[in-house]
Amino acid sequence: MLKIVGYTDRPSVRPGERLDFKVSCEAGATAYQARMVRLICGDDGRDSPGYKAQPVGAAVDGTYPGRRQGIDIGSYLVATAPMAIQAAGGLTLAALVAPHWIDKGSPQTILACVDGDRGMTLALDRSGAASVTLSNGRGQIALGTGRPLAARQWYLVAASFDPAQRRIVVIQRAINPQFGEPELVDGSATIPFALPDLAAAQVSAAASVIRDAEPAHRSQHHFDGKIESPAIYTGWIDPSRILHPGWATNPCILRWDFSRDMAKRRVLDQSGNGHDGLLVNLPTRAVTGAAWRGQTTQWRDRPELYAAIHFHCDDLYDMGWATDFSWELPMDLASGIYACELTTPDGGEDILPFFVLPPRGTATAPLAFLASTYTYLAYAN
Predict the structure, then answer these.
(1) 239 three-state secondary structure
(2) Rounded to whole angstroms, what are the CA distances from 144 to 81, 245, 299, 374?
(3) Sign of torsion over alpha carbons 362, 363, 368, 373
(4) Backbone angles phi, psi at 269, to 5 degrees
(5) Pairing relation of β-strands 349-356 and 12-13?
(6) Are 253 and 273 in contact (CB under 8 A)?
(7) Which residues pair with 48 in a beta bridge?
């Protein structure tokens, strides 16, 4: 395991500008050394000249306190604020899904509505079958359909809690049933407790979110595949009668339509209640949905056919680490390839490369060097 890792807030910078450095001591070191250098050769291979660097003598060279900064890996959608939900009168969750990783061996959250240890979660269970988990803070029940979904096929997955009968029902309806596959598979059970109202429910899709937790553990049970039209309704709705998540006669608490504003990270709530969501770690937008049958290959022509988002458990956009120190580059710093050398007392080391450009509008050398910064981003965040 690497003992220390870090990154800069951008790959290139000009003299007079500020560069932020974000560092994590993975092995628990309480302090580390930072030193700015100009890279002469970064190849330390057997047949290379070896690693060579010239110290810059930067004002930020020195010792800094160490800490571990976590990584919340995996993409998901989370409501921008907790919401009050009257769940005691019944609650219904529904979404269209096309899972891509069935035999994952762990639960995969589709839509969660949870306030601490109370709430309701629609998911795939460890076998890949549609399931629902209900908890009132003292007891919990999990119910599944018992039949794994087929990979890369579209299903309507829904669950509803009936407070009058103390009953929970979960269904999976195949949009285009494969040979020998039943169109509808369901499961139902009577539960020994009621679902309480949720004063500050955290609603999320494609992962369960742990509020006020360390960043490394903020999300769990990631869904791998496509999700379309997740929605939450008050009251009991017979899941076998639901044909689409966007259709219901009950009052709608939340309905996220992914066919709108596809260029944005923010997802607007179409219920009118203002429960907008924010996409974390940039899942893939504008992907084919449940209604797509090859009508067009251009999402701009028929956005309603590309109303799904593809989530992955290993998506990562920006780790969101706090800045440990910043360097304001001197005005007379020559352009070139530089790095921050990080070391710990127990032998940990990391080198954070960055590129110093000439002042804007000037040329300070006869050659221009084009750095493949997209490769840096692809392989090292």
Answers:
(1) helix
(2) 29, 19, 35, 43
(3) negative
(4) -80, 125
(5) parallel
(6) yes
(7) none
Block residue for tokens 């008050």: 234
Q: Which of left, alpha, beta for 60 (phi over 0: left; psi -120 to 50: alpha)?
A: alpha
- d(C-alpha 59, C-alpha 148), whole Å: 60
State the pLDDT confidence band at 169, using cuts at 50, 70 and 90.
Answer: very high
162: which residues sit within 8 A by CB, 6+ positions away?
90, 168, 169, 236
Residues 6+ apart with CB under 8 A from 52: 39, 40, 41
Taking only the tens place, the pLDDT of each residue in 306-353 is: 999 999 999 988 888 999 999 999 999 999 999 999 999 999 999 999
Of 59-63, 101-105, 212-216, the one with minimum mean pLDDT is: 212-216
Find out whether 110 and 97 touch, Cβ atoms under 8 Å. Answer: yes
Q: Distance (Å, rounded) from C-alpha 352 to C-alpha 340?
A: 5
**Long-range Cβ contacts of 285-288 (<8 Å, 24+ apart):** 285/258, 285/309, 286/262, 287/226, 288/226
Angle at the Cα of 108 (from 98 to 180), degrees rounded to 5? 45
Return the SS3 of 377: helix
* Upper half-sphere CA count for residue 363 (Cβ side, 13 Å): 5
Q: What angle do CA 107, 276, 160 make, to 5 degrees?
A: 45
Rounded distance, CA 283 to CA 206, Å?
10
Helix segments in the chain, DSSP class H: 373-380
- 306, 286 Cβ separation under 8 angstroms: yes
Write down the residue that tokens 């679902």 correspond to.
195
pLDDT at 341: 96
Token output for 262 = 């596809």
Residue 191 sits at φ, ψ, to 5 deg, of: -110, 155
